[in-house]
Amino acid sequence: MPRGFIIGELMNNLKINNLKFNKIINLIIENNGIPFLTGGYIRDYFLEIKEKDYDIEVYNITFNDLYSLLKSLYPKTKIVGKKYPIILLDNIEISTNNNIYNSINRRDFSINSIYYNLKTNKFIDFSNGLIDLKNKIIKLNNLDNIKKDPIRIFRAVYLYSKYNFHIDSKTAKTIKNSVQLIKTEKKERIFNEFEKIFNNVDNISKAIKYLNDLKIFNVLFSDFNFKNNILFSLNRLKKKNTSIILAILFFYTDKKILKNNLKKITNNKTLFNNIYSLTFYYSHFNSLYNNFDLTKLKRIVISTNFDNLLTLYSAINNINSNNIKIKKILNNYNMKKSDLSPIIQGKDLLKYYPNLNQKYYGKILKILYNMQLNNLFNTHLKGLELCYKLINNRYIFINKI
Question: What is the mean pLDDT of residues 270-299?
Fold first, then answer.
C-alpha cells in the first residue's frame, strides 16, 4: 500500500449540519468509539458536490455493542448486508472495523478511500485518493477487489460517466477481464446499479456506451441487439426515468424476448409492463402521428403512459415539441385531459367498498376507465352507479375480474 499521509492541518474542519448525524457521532465518541467519515461523501466534498448519504466506519466498538446503542436511540435502526453487515439508519450507513489499513484495502477505488476522523477533525489519505481526484483518475485500491465484488464494475462506469473521469489502465484491464463474473451476482444488486446510473448520470449515453463496450449487455441478455441509434436517442432524451431508458435500450431487440431479458435483472412486474407497453404502443403512436384520430389517442392513453411514450417517440425520431404534428397531438391531449383522467379512482373503491378484496381494485378500475373512454359515463355519480352494477353483476365479476 502506498505510504499514507495526514492532510488535516491543511484543511478547514468539515462541518455537517445534520442533527441526526451529529447525534450519532457524539454517541459513538461518548462510548469511546472512533468514527471516520469516508466514501462518496468525502469524495464529493473535495469535488464541491453536495452528497446526501453518509458512510461511517467506527473503530474501538464492537458491531453488536454499536447496534445496541443506536437501536436504543433510534428504534428503526436495522442491519443490512450478509457478507459485510452494515448498520443502516435512513441515509446513514455505519460499519465497524479493527484495522484501518485493511479496511482501506477492501474499499473499491482510491477516490472513495479518503477518511475524515470525526473525533480529531483530520483528513487521512492512505491510498493517494486526493492525487487521483485531482488528476480525475479512477483506480482500484486492490486489483483483486473486482473479483471479490464484480458489482464494482458498475461503480466504475458510474464514476467514469458522472464525473467525466478516466479509468486507470490497470483498473480498466481488470474490469474488462472480469465482466463475466457479473453473471454470478444477484439480479437485485445488478438492477440497483442500473438505476443508480440511470437516475444520477447526466450523460447517460456515455455510460451506456461504456457498458456496451465492456460487453455487459451481451453477458446479461440473450440476443441483445445494440445499435448506435440507441446512443443518439439517449442524447436527445428530455426526460429521464428507468422505464424510458430501458425502453430505448431494448427498442431494437425482439419484443418476444424483451420480458425474458428484463427478468434477468429484476422481478418488478410493473416495470415489465411499463417497458413492454412503451415499445409495443410505439407503432400506435407512429400511426397517430401520421394520421391523427381522437379514438387512437384515447386507446394510447388507456394503454400506456402517454407522457413517457411521447418522450420515447420524440427521442427516437429526433422530434421536438415545436413539431406541427406533435403540437396537434399535445393540444388535443391537453384539451381532453380532464376527460381522459379516470373519474372513478381507488379512493372511491376504498370509501364505498371497504370490504372488497383489494386485489380486484386494479382490474375494476381498468374496466371502468374503458367504459369512461367509450362515453358510457362522464359524471362521478354515473360512474359509481356503473361501479355498483359491475361489482354486483356475478357474470362480469367472474369473467371480467
Answer: 91
